[in-house]
Amino acid sequence: MKEIYLDNAATTRCLTSSAKRAYDVMTEDFGNPSSLHMKGVDAEKYLDEAREVISKSLRCREKEILFTSGGSESNNTAIFGGALRNERNGRHIITTAIEHEAVLSPIRALEKRGFSVTYLPVSKEGVISLSDLSDAITGDTVLVSIMHVNNETGAVQPIEEAADIIREKNKKTLFHVDAIQSFSKLPIDLKNTKIDLLSVSGHKLHAPKGSGFLFAREGVKLDPIIYGGGQEGGLRSGTQNVPAIAGLCESVRFMTQDMDAHYRHFKELRERLVEGLSDLENVYINGPADEKKQAPYILSLSVRDVRAEVLLHALEEKGIFVGAGSACSSNRPHISNTLIAMGLEHELLDQTIRLSFSVFTEEAEIDETVSALKELVPFLSKYRRG
Amino acid sequence: MYRAFMLKYGEIGIKGKNRAVFEEALRLSTEKALSRVGDGFTVTRPNGRILAEAKGDYDFDEAVDALKKVFGYVSFHPAKIVDDKGLPELYKEVISLFEKEYGRDIKASFKVKCKRGRKNYPLDSMELAAAVGEQLLNAFPGLSVDVHEPDIYVHVEIREKIYIYSKEFEGAKGLPRGVSGKTMLLLSGGIDSPVAGFRMARRGVTLEAVYFHAPPYTSERAKNKVVKLGELISRYTGPFRLHIVNFTDIQLKILDKCPRDELTIIMRRYMMKIAETIAKETGCLSLTTGESIGQVASQTMQSLNCTNAVASLPVFRPLITYDKQEIMDEAERIGTYETSVLPYEDCCTIFVAKHPVTKPRLSVIEKSEESLTGEIEPLLEEALRTQEVVEIV
Q: B159 and B257 in one domain?
């Protein structure tokens, strides 16, 4: 059976060329970039090259890129490292109700240590309000953390405007953006946007797992969370994962070479899917109606009377892999904070799936998914829970 | 330092003519259990006990752990094997083992027990025990003799070689694997049924198992969890076959045709039927479930009557009088609890009614099932035909 993989917001297939690059580095240029001899120098070149490619794509400086193990580590470094180092600027943090756990958990940990936290609400469409943000910033605000694209709905947050507002209200406030679902798919211009910290994960963009980076603007002071040999300017000790970083470099180059074309492709896929499902009853699309506020590679779908997990497995039987907004079970319900914050009807909270595309997703795959849903939804919604 | 283990069985000692059969079963399952430890062990049965001798180096804790899972033993001891080089040498060996196991400063009462497998040894058992005891008293000032209720026993057995042992581990008890016929265990992903399987196996019963899944309502992970549970209990029960039966269509058919509050009970009856069919095909003489009176609606006496009514083989419910907490404690002890509580939905809960019948009457249930006649039979056949068999080792 042919596989149709529509869970690219969870992870992506590594590009063959990136995997090949990582393999070659592992087996040939395996040196430690900190070594003084040639093997070290050879390895270091991959880091330099990756920093160059990444910084160009974001319009920042090479030395502002710190390699990490991925998104969670980048978020943790930004939040712990940023808030604790700059504690004397204040002990108030602002974030949103729809952040990923890799942002919310570290912030909650700081809350336990005495930081106060404002969680910005979102509209029904899942977008924060800039006036809420503006109202929340005080002289005591040390850090604001807002995600660029929400991982469950694809709602795009207004990070550029947010950056301006933050700068205006409190110059000392650090602005962190979790760009894990957006980097390489939506444009980010760090030269013209006053973002201080930005987190990226490699495996969301066809790079090896275990790769990622944190952008930290020059002059922004951070405490490391991993101490040791002082790699990455002392901010992230530990021998760099050179093979994965070499793979990441390859993938970033591929993904950013023609972002406009990719964007158009995503948009066509999403429109095709939405159009295909338009005559299906009891199916609702979550997220902004305004296409400028919606990342076109994520689609959140609520299906009345069909539990997400069941629909997911039923699609799986047809070789179609999607994500569930919540990993729900009868024993331990774990419901998505994003959907709750959007005020989604309670019933639908565990009846919501997520389809997410990659640049390799084909129209024919969308068509097959549409017919699968048209077949499954009426059948599955017939059998309700007791 | 321990080359061997001396293993002691209880109940099977009194089984008369069957004794040899039981001993051989015990010997075999011991050999099997130890086959994964080091280079394995040679297991023999000299008079009234089982002796496992290591073929090479091995990890002591691993061996003890494996032996604790072999049914049929009351206790076992790590043993030192020495050549007969005369009494002074023997005393030295006993003293060194004793010091190793209890330390120089031990304060306790003890008794030496000797056995002679060869009667040409210069001292008789009583004399030898007295002599060894005296040596120990001299070597360890904190020791005293108590021949009635000593804290510590020291055993010396004179055979071809001499076996010295003292430290005692509690055995798993029960009967040796494979002496009591085979049962079909209805295994779910829950806490109870693995414990029920363990309990049956502890009485020497061999297992065959059946698991019902309902894709897409239950996931691959739920199935893997059951396989994992099977592997965990197989350390005790020995290898067995797990039959995985797709129950979705049957369940949906019942949902279509029967009252919702009777769903669970009717489902249970069809599971029982399928389990029994496979049981008979595979030579099982009984069915086993993890049910306990009153635990849930389908386990009231009335419900149990209804499910029981479809089976012609005896249905054993080893946990029938257990409290939930007792079952959980036992699951914890045998190591299945953590896996059992992984949160994957199983097929009994997906469509469960908010208020299922708790006192079903058989005649009412049978009447409800009439609506399935003609439609359910092909589904049962299909479920049996498409069953997947996994060898659990």
A: no
Q: Where are the alpha helices (DSSP H) in A59-183?
A: 71-76, 82-85, 101-112, 130-136, 159-169
d(CA A24, CA A205): 20
3-state secondary structure of B8: strand
Place of tokens 């689609």: A299
Nearest CB to A386; choose among B216, B345, B352: B352
Could you tell me if B102 and B244 lie in one domain?
no
Residue A329: list chain B partners with CB under 8 A: 343-345
| Chain A residues touching residue B343 (CB < 8 angstroms) | 329-332
For the domain spanning A16-256, the CATH number is: 3.40.640.10
Compute the average pLDDT of residues B81-89: 92
Mean pLDDT of chain A: 95
Q: What pLDDT, on a 0 to 100 scale, did the predictor assign at position A327?
A: 45
Q: Whose CA is closest to A148, among A87, A58, A221? A: A58
How big is the CA angle at A370 (ends A16 and A148), to the nearest 5 degrees? 60
What is the pLDDT confidence band of residue B47, given thresholds at 50, 70 and 90?
Answer: confident
Q: Is A60 known to be catalytic?
A: no
In the block, tokens 């910033």 appear at A137
Q: Kindly determine whether residue A310 and residue B354, on different chains, have CB atoms separated by under 8 Å.
A: no
Of B170, B204, B232, the last residue of a domain is B170
User: Cα dihedral sign for A266, A270, A275, A277?
Assistant: positive
A329 and B216: CB-CB below 8 Å? no
CATH number for the region A4-11+258-380 comes to 3.90.1150.10
Decide if A297 contacts A155 (C-beta within 8 A): no
**Pick from B11, B162, B34, B166: which is nearest to B90 by CA?**
B162
The per-residue pLDDT for range A65-88, each reduced to its tens digit, is 999 999 999 999 999 999 999 999
3-state SS of B133-172?
HHHHHHHCCCEEECCCCCCEEEEEEECCCEEEECCCEECC
**Cα of B319 to nearest chain A Cα, Å:** 23
- Give yes or no: residues B308 and B276 share one domain: yes
3-state DSSP call for residue B271? helix
Mapped onto helix, strand or coil, the DSSP state of residue A192 is coil
Asked if residue B282 and residue B155 are part of one domain, the reply reads: no
Which residues of B are less than 8 Å from A332 in CB distance? 343
Which residues are CB-contacts of B274 (< 8 A; sequence separation ≥ 6)? B210, B212, B245, B380, B383, B384
Neighbouring CB atoms inside 10 A of A278's CB total 10
Residues B195 and B151 in one domain: no
Q: Write the burial class of residue B124 (CB in 10 Å: 0-12 exposed, 13-18 middle, 19+ buried).
A: exposed
Give the residue from B170, B195, B211 where a domain finishes.
B170
Q: Any CB–CB contact under 8 A between B296 and chain A? A: no
Asked if A313 and B217 come within 8 Å (Cβ–Cβ), the reply is yes
Q: Is the pLDDT of residue B90 over 80?
A: yes
User: By the 8 A CB rule, do B142 and B38 touch?
Assistant: no
What is the nearest CA distance from A367 to chain B, expressed in angstroms?
A: 22
What is the per-residue pLDDT across A214-257, written as a single tens digit (0 to 9) for each? 999 999 999 999 999 999 999 999 999 999 999 999 999 999 99
Give the residue with greater pLDDT, A209 vs B147: A209
What SS3 state is found at A146? strand
Parent domain of B355: 182-392
Contact A362, A267 (CB under 8 A): no
Note whether B118 and B201 are same-domain residues. Answer: no
Q: Is the pLDDT of residue B350 over 80?
A: no
